UniProtKB/TrEMBL annotation:
This is TIGR01777 family protein. InterPro entries: DUF1731, Epimerase_deHydtase, NAD(P)-bd_dom_sf, SDR39U1. Coiled coil: none annotated. It comes from the Bacteria. Residues 250-296 form the DUF1731 domain. Residues 3-222 form the NAD-dependent epimerase/dehydratase domain. Transmembrane segments: none annotated. Pfam families: DUF1731 (PF08338), Epimerase (PF01370). Signal peptide: none annotated. NCBIfam families: yfcH. Belongs to the NAD(P)-dependent epimerase/dehydratase family. SDR39U1 subfamily. SUPFAM superfamilies: NAD(P)-binding Rossmann-fold domains.
Amino acid sequence: MRILLTGGTGLIGRALCRLWAAQGHQLVVWSRSPEKVAKLCSGARGIGRLDELEAGEALDAVVNLAGAPIADRPWTTKRRQLLWDSRIDLTRQLVDWLASRPLKPRVLVSGSAVGWYGDGGERRLDEDSPAGSEDFASELCFAWEEAALRAEELGIRVVLVRTAPVLARDAGMLARLLPPFRLGLGGRMGSGRQWMPWIHIEDEVHLIDFLLQHEECRGPYNACAPNAVRNAEFARTLGRVLRRPALLPAPACVLRLALGEMSDLLLGGQHLQPRRTLDAGYQFRFPDLEAALADLLGRH
């Protein structure tokens, strides 16, 4: 299979490239730094512009994961524009390019995030739940999905992957939490009662591969483990796996002062279930948090 990726040099993209290169697929990564692609993406071909692909070069699938990191820094006006451009504008450009090609791929798998639902409080949510409407993250995800769904008008199957915070050993949320937790300085955020969806990196990449391969899959799928936890339980479990106390909370007022509106990502949450993902037949390798953390941190 010949696959075009955007966001291929990110955490999820690099893991996908390792999986698909091992399976023998041909990979092309559209990147702002194409010269780095081969090293970072398991030998994939890097391109800096879409027009580097000739019209006669057929693609079987496109996987769109591009987007500046959403939780790296506070959402200033400039940062909001970058987050918007790197997702919505890039996805619109990608779909416009697909419309111009005589040979269209069979499927577009496009990234999204559980922020689509906004702060769900205690409500149990699944893929049929409505979008949030009161914060920037939900507006961003809604527009991102709308931009990708335009590809359906081209006869392309569109899959939307609403990803929870991804647990990985060397990057992402877990890597940021490890230094204070290893020092015994970790703990809950705010009240700790907010629900906290999550997914192991192996399940993230194997779910994307599953959705790519199954022709009957289209529309939104939640990429989150089926056993949801509250923030305080996540902190206790991480402390237990590391054999460290996890008793020092991060007060909500401090997080709001330091991060502004971005603190909503930490203080809000979603009691989320991957109902359509499970109904499609995907079997999670790591449905339980403690086993997932133990695998990643070598504590078996």
